Amino acid sequence: MADARLEVVRGDITTLAVDAIVNAANGSLLGGGGVDGAIHRAAGPALLAECRTLDGCPTGEARVTRGYRLPARWVIHAVGPVWSGGRAGEDELLASCYRAALAAAVEIGARGVAFPAISTGIFGFPVTRAAAIAVRVVNAFVASSDALDRVLFVCFDDATEAAYRATLV
Question: Is 83 left (phi over 0), alpha (psi -120 to 50) or beta?
């Protein structure tokens, strides 16, 4: 059974008024396409300037910046794996990425956090598989901690929303 603190929503993560949003970042943290590019555009140039001071981020880890012009106070930049067929540790790297983002959220005192479908865009991770990993990791976290009041899985399209809703039952 899914925890009541977990929700699937359809929409644009850059418009959400939560404490922190998670960016599906690349290792440079300097912006890119998809969610990453949208977050950088919405936050404004100060986000890129702060990201330049972080010296990148390894896959499976996360870094935190301010949200600048976003409604969210913080951006947690989580670097998921590029899909290579499933035999290069992608599942564990994706799980690690979610755990790192959750730990970062707790560290900054966030009570509400919104996740995109990390690694499922240009990185090519299969959506259904990624949703199962994301929900499993977040469920385990909220079952062991009351640090977060609300976790949103923010889906941009029908297929992603369907995969998350099917997993979060």
Answer: beta
Could you read off the pLDDT of 135-158 as tens digits, one per residue?
999 999 999 999 999 999 999 999
At residue 73, the 3 state secondary structure works out as: coil
Q: How far apart are CA 79 and CA 58, in angstroms?
A: 7
Question: pTM of whole model > 0.90?
Answer: yes
Q: What is the DSSP string of 82-136?
A: PPSSS-SSHHHHHHHHHHHHHHHHHHTT-SEEEE--TTSSTT---HHHHHHHHHH
Q: How far apart are the first and last CA of the chain?
A: 6
DSSP state of 148: -
Residues 101 and 119 sit within 8 Å (Cβ to Cβ): no
| Domains recognised in the chain with CATH numbers | 6-167 (3.40.220.10)
Nearest to 80, CA basis, from 95, 70, 66: 95
3-state class of 7 per DSSP?
A: strand
| Active site positions, annotated | 36
Cβ neighbours for 95, distance < 8 A, ≥ 6 positions apart: 133, 136, 137
